[in-house]
Amino acid sequence: MDRVQYSIKEVSERLDISYRTLHYYEKKFNLQINRDKSGNRIYTDENIDVLEKILDFKSKGMSLDGIKTLFIEKGILEDEKSDLVVLDEVSLDIKENLINEIRLAVSKELKGTNEALEKVLEDNKSLRDELRSIKRQNEDHYSKIDKRLTEWRNNSEKPWWKKLFK
């Protein structure tokens, strides 16, 4: 028995979505859409069912990532992350050597960075101490001026402004 197949135009009209949206959903959900000899997409009833479910959940406010997760959990879609990678012993040794070299380089860099940071902090401390000393000197200087002005104002019979502007 032959399966019913639909062109992208037929599916687009049936679902009332654009070709671009169909392409996007195909890529986003990793849908397996068959192609004819010319390379045109050929949709099956199963493909249309999945697309209708996507549109239904989307119309209810669900995000595409949420729909994808739901479909993977329910077995409607296959998990893309299930690819198996096989490494031989030589590859594992190379990996370990690279990791060790990277750790060594990072630790050397961090050691140099820590020494530089300690020097900057020490320089910063001495600058702060010098700044405090200058502030204290300024406070003392202005305090003496204030004290002399106050004495000058209080020690005379005439108002201070008359002394100043004879």
What do you see in this structure?
By secondary structure, this protein is mainly alpha-helical. It has a domain at 5-82: Multidrug-efflux Transporter Regulator, Chain: A, Domain 2, CATH 1.10.1660. 69% of the residues lie in helices and 5% in strands. Strands 1-3-2 form a 3-stranded antiparallel β-sheet. The N and C termini lie far apart (123 Å). The model has no long low-confidence stretch (mean pLDDT 85).
List keywords for this structure.
166 residues; Multidrug-efflux Transporter Regulator, Chain: A, Domain 2; 3-stranded antiparallel β-sheet; 6 helices; 69% helix; elongated; transcription regulation
Q: In percent, how much strand structure appears in the residues? A: 5-15%
Given helix and strand content, the structural type is mainly alpha
Oligomer kind: single chain
Kindly, what is the distance between the CA atoms of the first and last residues, rounded to a whole number of angstroms? 123 Å
Count of helical regions = 6
Name given to the CATH architecture of the domain at 5-82: Orthogonal Bundle
**Spatial shape:** elongated
CATH class of the domain at 5-82: Mainly Alpha
Give average pLDDT, whole number.
85
